[in-house]
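Question (not urgent): is this output format expected?
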Amino acid sequence: MNAALDALGIDLEGSLLEEPRFLADAAFLGALHAELRDSLGAGGAAAVLLQLGFARGLFDAGRLVREIGASSPRPGGLPVLTRLPMRLAPAPARDGGIAFAGSWPEHHEAEAVLAALGGTDEPACHASAGYTSGWLSGVFAVDAVAVETRCCAAGARTCRFAALEASTWRRRRGAAARRAAALPFLQLHELVARRVAALPQPARMDGFERGSPAIHVWGPVMVVPFAGADESLRALELIARDRDARGVRVVIVDLAGAIIDQGFGALALERILDAVAGLGAEPILAGVSPLSAGVVAELERAHALVRKDLPEAIAAGFQIAQAQRAAG
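Got this back:
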């Protein structure tokens, strides 16, 4: 994968993909920064940390995407939300593709760098940027790169980043393009795909069945395929009755294939959104058809977020749940 990793005795596939301390243990992360910088210099250390983080984020995203169709998640089989707390908000995409602005509210890596190196003159959260890049790449099936724009290790109050597709960064050139070029996307995707494929097979359903009462993705996120008010409301009742599902904080209503008219369709959807609010959860609408866009636009202003498709809605749901957990 990388001659520098081999020289340091780091087996990316065999160890750090499953290394629980990689992003959680400040002492371990600070020591890793210091060792890599001593061995490779600042630029080489940044490239290696970016790759390590990318592989971990891509692996977690691969597990997420793989389990979306599971009828019931395996106990302890998946991390709840992302391994790295992060806040994301869609940003204007001048050059097309995905675009996000965000932050790492716990600025864990920056604190590790401050403790180990006494701070830096430039952004230092390379593993966090890599993880975010990998997670976005896996969820949205693109090659994405998150570039840190402000860093607590360099004196800022928050650690913030911008995330765009790698091709967009390359067109803009500069430091971000060099970071994008440092990621061997094809090799990392192949490595992680092997690891994800080797995981035990979950119990699956054949996709999101339109007539099924509910699909509980896991943890704080629930997906409800829209099948009219009665079916969807029965699905929401399961949340209230199921002890394991009472922690749901976000309910995604999947409208793919549905046409919401101004009459009964709008009324049915409003009943569902009211029921979601009654459970204390945040609603998100996904997969809105052009024929339903006008009606849903009115509901968006009054009730719910709208995302263009299910993967984007699930990603947004994780971020909402993460923010609620941090605020609580």
